[in-house]
TrEMBL record:
Transmembrane segments: none annotated. This is DUF1697 domain-containing protein. SUPFAM superfamilies: SP0830-like. Gene3D superfamilies: SP0830-like domains. Signal peptide: none annotated. Pfam families: DUF1697.
Length: 182
């Protein structure tokens, strides 16, 4: 059965390095045999359809193809449209009343328990807040991610050692849900 997926590439096209032009990313995905390939923004979001049902297999194949095409490794997460919709539906914050820049989702390569963030003093970061979901972390940062002290604390290597993590603002999450259900 063909399913729609989103590929979330980590850390490309930032600050002039690790350039992955979206037209070339679409060609890489098509070259892997995926269909209905489209990209969103320049920051490493692609939607495609595939017969493969294993997200990890899809991600590994794309990582290998990107390294072959561009000469560097890019951590990649692949998530199904159903998963993305579930993440959006489970948002613990009032997304409809917030600006997209105030709400972010960090997607993880594996489940991450609350114990990894036990040392974070949540009260010290208010009004910023975070909640864990299914292989995801929701971050409410009223002044945006660029000014978020909580985001800096959460992204320290200790709590996420060995886990691939990549963040998207709420507008992008919603758009990827739409694109994987079109």
């Amino acid at each position: 059965m063909t399913r729609k997926y989103a590929a979330l590439l980590r850390g490309i096209n930032v600050g002039g390095s690790r350039k992955v032009p979206m037209a070339e990313l679409r060609a890489v995905l098509s070259g892997l045999g995926h269909g209905d390939v489209v990209t969103y923004l320049q920051s490493g979001n692609a939607v495609f359809s595939s017969e493969e049902s294993d997200e990890d297999v899809l991600a590994a194949g794309l990582e290998q193809a990107i390294e072959g095409a561009f000469g560097f490794r890019v951590d990649t997460l692949v998530r199904s449209g159903a998963y993305l919709r579930a993440v959006a539906d489970a948002c613990p914050f009032p997304a409809a009343s917030l600006q997209g820049r105030q709400l972010h989702v960090t997607f993880f390569s594996e489940p991450v328990g609350a114990d990894r963030f036990a040392s974070v003093d949540a009260a010290a970061h208010l009004p910023e807040e975070f909640r864990l979901g299914d292989r995801a972390l929701y971050l409410y940062a009223p002044d945006g991610l660029g000014r978020s002290k909580l985001a800096v604390t959460l992204s320290r290597p200790g709590p996420l050692k060995g886990v691939v993590a990549t963040s998207r603002n709420w507008n992008t999450v919603v758009k990827l849900v739409e694109m994987t259900h079109a």
